[in-house]
Design a protein that fits this description.
By secondary structure, the chain is mostly helical. 73% of the residues lie in helices and 0% in strands. It has two helices and no strands.
């Protein structure tokens, strides 16, 4: 799996994002693996994880606006 952070311009938060990814990626990969074990495809599982993350980001943005 490619690390998208490799393609982004450097910014002050790069190290923090990289550290966070390193900490969370194994858990996300386990979620995908567990979903595959339940009969879903890797693509389906990854899409659902991304969709959940997107919903969470939208929720956070709404909280910041209030």
């Amino acid at each position: 799996m490619n690390n998208i952070l490799e393609f982004r311009p450097k910014c002050a938060h790069d190290e923090s994002l990289s550290d966070c990814r390193e900490a969370l990626e194994p858990a996300v990969m386990k979620i995908v693996s567990d979903a595959i074990g339940k009969g879903y495809t890797a693509a389906e599982a990854a899409m659902v994880v991304a969709d959940i993350a997107d919903d969470y980001i939208l929720m956070l943005s709404r909280q910041l606006q209030h």
